[in-house]
Amino acid sequence: MLKKIVLTGARGALGTELRPALAKLTEALVSTDIVDAPDDLAPNETFVRADLAKMDEVAPLMDGAEMVVHFGAIPDEGPFETLLGPNYVGAYNVWEAAYRAGARRIVYASSIHALGLGETAAGLDTDAGHRPDTFYGLSKCFAEDMGRMYWEKRGLEAVCLRILSCTPEPQNVRALGTWLSYRDMVQLVERSLLTAVVGFTVAYGVSANTRAPVSNDRVRFLGYRPQDNAEDWAEAITAKERTPRADDMGYTRLGGPFAKVPLGESGVEAIRRMAAED
């Protein structure tokens, strides 16, 4: 059993799903977010309200931490100035504070938007280079590169999870390839924590979808074996959704709607508009 795990972004959708599983892996779980504590803390879980952009609030969280699961950030595109504190400075603070505290590893919620302008049909693996689609995607590139640097210069391990579309069920035709179920997301984080040695590793957060546009073959050593497949929803989704145009970047690029929006404008709102059009 791990000694202590710190979870950032604990009140977000994915953090909420992770908390019970992480509590079972560790003697002490410290959950943190910028909002108030949830009502369902585990017996070995402590919640601390903290702003990731403030080092004096982040550093105390890391005292005695063995592993850090960093899921805290603004999960959408926005003006660079809006993302700078939570997504850029926050990532630096987490890495630096974890290093100072002697933590062994950071498991980071990166995103497919780090290479969101890559072609969906390219069949990319985990060695694919960065092609960010937004300032949000650029923040993920920054943190991935920082994670590699901290591993190579300071020996702090990192697993960067390029999450595609993590929702309870696949929502649209694009998600037939990009979906990551909550169950598989939890398994991927668990394997990222429990694998003996990872160095610096990039893995895709995607379920065992028949139409998956990316491959985790290079990182099978993690032991991640997804259980769910979006194809189970394919008939219902394709029956109600229009056939996309061949030049629609919302489908031809890995970032989906984020690849289409002007810099600084919400990608989440673009997804909602796509759903409304269908």
Automatic annotation (TrEMBL):
Q: Does the keyword NAD apply?
A: yes
What GO annotations for molecular function exist for this entry?
oxidoreductase activity
The protein here is known as Wenxma_13, whole genome shotgun sequence
Which Pfam family, just one, is annotated for this protein? Epimerase
**Do you know which InterPro entries this protein is assigned to?**
Epimerase_deHydtase, NAD(P)-bd_dom_sf
Domain of life assignment? Bacteria
Q: Which UniProt keywords apply?
A: NAD, Oxidoreductase
Residues of the NAD-dependent epimerase/dehydratase domain: 5-163
The record's family statement is: Belongs to the NAD(P)-dependent epimerase/dehydratase family.
Keyword Oxidoreductase appears in the UniProt entry: yes
Among PANTHER family, the record links this protein to:
4-EPIMERASE, PUTATIVE (AFU_ORTHOLOGUE AFUA_7G00360)-RELATED, NUCLEOSIDE-DIPHOSPHATE-SUGAR EPIMERASE
